[in-house]
Design goal:
The protein is mostly helical. The protein contains 16 helices and no strands.
């Protein structure tokens, strides 16, 4: 399939719901993470933040390792079986999280959860299968919109259901994953035909081999670097937001959930709607430049904020910079051939995962350093680091030959 038709609307809906659930795997735990970790492991808020970074990094390591594997498997065996099997495992994983009583069992669920969330590469490949070249970036924006919805429903469910205990949100997530599995079983077609089917090759079904193969394509290696740097900075939200807002403003889990939900709504609007207006009028290059500069401004403001109400009002505005990833992803998808789309999406997912491996550890350590009382007190310091990274991204991108990103 090369274009989106009425017959693909239900499958497209299934794909977007799957991506929402992938995002919920991150967002669901955010409001309850500080209390949950202290409940199963003890310690103070700073120690809980460090463990939160470890769990987030574990989740990302699995996405890094298995993104290209699942993407390559979908290039060979099809998108449908990979997505359905992963959803079934995801549902079981949430049930285990619901009863986890030790930090090590919670750690194990993040291992499994990271593998199942690696199906975003397969979902992205399905979108590439049904999208014409001129609409790839716009349709990839829907991936971001779905993740925005995940940030809405994940923190909202986590925050509201936390009133019934730390475990309640995970039972709800297991039920949602099961319902989507049933829905997908009946509506999801197979888009991998013999024309684009690629033999499975273990040497390319790992992040290192896949990076090497795709890095030979003109312009792809540098775009992947930008994906990594941008995601490293953007992960400051899930890595530190619950800790930052509790420390700086004394927010409760419900308030953290509300703020993240407002961010998710704005992100969904930007990547699901506004980006469809921006890219055709300004092009991929100018859209990416705008995104870097706006995010620099937003991160700088968050670093300096001292009012909780101003932070709550400003949070949805920060999502206006969330146009970079779909634009860059569209550039790379047009460079790659039809039989490399699953592999490409797997490498993109791995690039994001590398950022998720490193960023939570760095961002939470920066938060600890600037709140431990041993020096300058600046809870927003991680956002200052993110702002600096936006300037690095801008410099790397504008020094890039214009013809390579057109």
């Amino acid at each position: 399939m090369t274009t989106e038709t009425p017959s693909t609307r239900l499958p497209f809906t299934f794909i977007l719901i799957t991506l929402v659930l992938d995002a919920m795997g991150i967002g669901l735990i955010l409001p309850v993470m500080p209390d949950l970790i202290r409940d199963v492991n003890g310690g103070d808020l700073g120690e809980a933040a460090v463990w939160g970074g470890v769990l987030a990094t574990t989740f990302a390591v699995m996405q890094f390792l298995f993104g290209p594997t699942l993407g390559s498997l979908s290039d060979r065996y099809g998108r449908r079986p990979i997505l359905l099997i992963s959803l079934a495992v995801m549902a079981v994983d949430y049930l285990v999280m619901a009863v986890a009583g030790t930090i090590w069992l919670l750690f194990l669920t993040r291992v499994v959860g990271g593998i199942t969330a690696a199906t975003q590469s397969t979902a992205g490949a399905f979108i590439a299968d049904i999208s014409p070249p001129e609409k790839k970036a716009q349709n990839f924006g829907l991936i971001g919109a779905a993740f925005g919805m995940g940030f809405i429903f994940g923190p909202m469910i986590g925050g509201l259901l936390s009133e019934f205990g730390h475990r309640a949100p995970f039972y709800a997530a297991a039920a949602l994953a099961t319902a989507n599995l049933i829905f997908g079983y009946f509506v999801m077609p197979e888009t991998v035909t013999n024309r684009i089917r690629r033999p499975f090759d273990w040497s390319r079904a790992n992040p290192f081999g896949a990076f090497q193969a795709l890095g030979r394509l003109p312009g792809v290696a540098r775009l992947l670097l930008l994906v990594f740097l941008y995601e490293f900075a953007f992960i400051v939200y899930p890595a530190t937001w619950a800790f930052f807002t509790q420390e700086r403003f004394g927010w409760s889990p419900a308030m953290v959930g509300l703020s993240l939900a407002s961010f998710g709504v704005s992100m969904a609007i930007v990547q699901g709607g506004i980006i469809r207006w921006i890219i055709p009028r300004f092009g991929d290059r100018n859209t990416v430049i705008y995104g870097f500069l706006f995010n620099f401004f937003a991160f700088t403001v968050l670093m300096l904020l001292s009012s909780g109400w101003v932070a709550l009002a400003f949070t949805p505005i920060t999502a206006l910079g969330a146009v970079v990833t779909p634009a860059v992803q569209g550039m790379m998808s047009r460079i790659a051939s039809d039989d490399q789309q699953g592999e490409l999406q797997g490498v993109i997912a791995s690039s994001k995962a590398v950022a998720m491996i490193l960023s939570p550890l760095v961002m939470t350590q920066v938060f600890w350093m600037f709140t431990s009382g041993d020096g300058l007190y600046l809870p927003g310091a991680p956002f200052g680091l993110a702002a600096a990274l936006m300037l690095v991204c801008f410099a790397v991108f504008v020094m890039r030959p214009r013809r390579a990103v057109a």
